[in-house]
Design a protein that fits this description.
With 139 residues, the protein is of the alpha+beta class. 32% of the residues lie in helices and 29% in strands. The longest helix has 17 residues.
Length: 139
């Protein structure tokens, strides 16, 4: 068994803010991330797939397919968007790095299985110092 990782990048705006809390409570819990007029990040997403080498191609998964699928399902909907306002799969959710990572997993895991491989992990970097890793709902 081997793993293979594809990196994708996107830029997006968001804020961490609950309408059902006061400004003071939002500021206390989320700090600068609660800034009403948004702020942005240069996100980096690492998608790690695991599987065996296919004898006919020598690949775990076709990277061209992986890259095109990620572009269509993840990068296009997220890149240069406002995560709170523009992204259907984040509607009504907190736009934290944790929530975003789980949502990305839910969108792509089955597609990868359909290619005869398995989604092993996601790593989503919000800044170079802050990132989330996810190994799926059963890990
Ligand atoms: Ni932020």
């Amino acid at each position: 068994m081997l793993t293979l990782t594809r990196r994708e990048r996107f830029n997006a705006a968001h804020k961490l803010y609950r309408e059902d809390w006061t400004d003071e409570k939002n500021k206390e819990v989320f700090g600068k991330c609660a800034n009403k007029n948004w702020h942005g990040h240069n996100y980096e997403l690492f998608v790690t797939v695991k599987g065996d080498i296919k004898p006919d191609t020598g690949f775990i998964i076709d990277l061209k397919w992986l890259s095109a699928m990620l572009q269509e399902k993840i990068i296009e909907p997220l890149d240069h968007r406002n995560l709170n306002l523009d992204v259907p799969f984040l509607k009504g959710k907190m736009c934290s790095t944790e929530v975003l990572t789980v949502e990305i997993w839910n969108i792509i895991a089955e597609d990868i299985e359909g290619q005869g491989a398995e989604l092993h992990s996601l790593k989503l970097m919000e800044t170079e110092n802050n990132f989330v890793e996810y190994y799926g709902p059963n890990a």
